[in-house]
Amino acid sequence: MTFFFPILKAMLVVGITGLIIGIILGIAGKLLAVKEDPRVRGVRDLLPGSNCGGCGFTGCDALAAAIVTGQAPISACAAAFSNHERIANVIGQTAEKAVRKVAIVHCAGTCDKTKLKYNYHGLADCRKISVVPGQGSKLCTKGCLGFGSCANVCNENAISIINGVAVVDRNLCVGCGACAKVCPNGLIEIIPETSKYTVQCSSTEHGKYVRVACEIGCIGCKICVKNCEAQAITVENNLAKINPELCTGCGKCAEKCPRHIIFKMV
Questions:
Q1: Residue 240's beta-bridge partner residues?
Q2: What is the pTM for the complete model shown?
Q3: pLDDT tens per residue, range 151-207
Q4: DSSP category for residue 172
Q5: 4 occurs within a structural domain
Q6: Could you tell me the residue range of the domain that residue 226 belongs to?
Q7: Counting beta carbons within 10 angstroms of the beta carbon of residue 166, is it exposed (0 to 12), middle (13 to 18) or buried (19 or more)?
C-alpha cells in the first residue's frame, strides 16, 4: 500500500494542477477574447462562400472583414453582385450603382481555324504547357491553349472547352475573375455585361504572321477604326480593342472586318 501512495500523490498533484491551469485559461480566454463585429458575420452570410480569391483576399471571411473595416469596397465580390445593396445595408452605407460583369475569352482560334506545329501529348494544364518548347501545339502562341485550366477553377461551371477554345456561358458566369488569373496567355478579361461588341483575339503579332497562323486572327488593319463613328476602337500593338463605354453597338466594325474577328455580345 505504501508503494502506491507516492503514485497516487503524484496523480493528485498533477490533476489539481491541470484543473487550476484549465480554470485560469478559461478565465483568460473570456477576458482576452477579441470581440467580432457582428457586421462581419452579416456580410459573410451574403457572400457566396466559394473562396475563389477573385476579390484579391484569401477567402470570403477575409473579404467580409475587409468590407466592414473599409479596406475593400462593397462591390469587391463580383459573384455577390445581387447582394451588394444588402451588404451596404448591413454596414450602414449606400451601395454604388454597379454593372454586372462577365468573363470573355479573347480568342476564336478553334482547331479548324488555327494551324498546328505538332501534336501535344502530356499534362492537360495550360500553365504547364505554356512553358514547354513552342508553348503548345498551336502555331499561334498568343491564343487559347485549350486545356481548361480556366474551366478547372470556375466554381460556377461557366466555362467549357469547345473545339480547342474556352467558351464562357454568360448566364452562369459571375465575373469573379478566377479564370482570368490562371490563364497563362492573359486571354480572359472581365467586362461589363452591357458590352455590345468585342474583338476575340489577343495576338500582337504582325498581320503577315497572323494570316499564316490563324484564319480569323486580327491583323491590325484598322478598317474597324475607320468605320467606327463613335471612335470606340483603337489599334495598339497590331491588335484592335473596343472601348465598351464609347461603343454604340452599331455593328459597322463587325460588318467591315475582313477577318470576321469582331463578335456581338449575346
A1: 235
A2: 0.75
A3: 999 989 999 999 999 999 999 999 989 999 999 999 999 999 999 999 999 999 999
A4: T
A5: no
A6: 196-266
A7: buried
